[in-house]
Amino acid sequence: MTITKNVMWHKAVVTKEDRNQLNQHRSAVIWFTGLSGSGKSTLANAVDLKLFQNKVRSYVLDGDNIRHGLNRGLGFSERDRKENIRRIGEVAKLFVDSGIITLTAFISPFQEDRDRVRQLFRNKEFIEVYVKCALEECERRDPKGLYKKARIGEIQHFTGISSPYEAPLNPEIIIDTEHVAVDEASTKIIDYLRRNKII
Description:
This protein has helices at residues 16-23, 40-53, 63-68, 78-97, 111-118, 135-141, 146-151, 182-195; strands spanning 29-33, 58-62, 101-105, 126-132, 173-176. With 199 residues, it is α/β, with parallel strands linked by helices. A five-stranded parallel beta sheet has the order 2-3-1-4-5, with helices on both faces. It starts with 15 loop residues before the first helix and ends with a helix.
């Protein structure tokens, strides 16, 4: 995609640093990645609630919700998945620039795409959380019935079945949802934010 020479970036008068000072916390993106059914949305919302209770400005960008609007026209081919993550990365960057801790819950199956999004952010502004869960357990949970449909061919390009998932190489946080409860996992992420002076 090319940008025409007549489109110029306008520098904001109120900076991200100004907003962080007003909020009394730094902004960042917490990027939850993992298989469908691993618990990304559940965990992102649990962290969001704890942040809210601590008067921290935050917002969850959820994969399904985004596909109802912004990314409604995208399918699940590799090309469309890459574009889906590219757009989310740009939206998350705007949220972080606005001073908000942004939690994204997307499968985001390809390492290359996650690395590309990471490059949009400053050091320590991108926090990758690998929501680890065995495929067999995700299939057992199957909260949306997607694995069943994928197994009988009703859904094409389904991650873990007919499309690969590339686990993060060096995530900031790993949460194994087969062995760690939601409350404990969300506390672990909050503790990480505190240790790194984000909140």
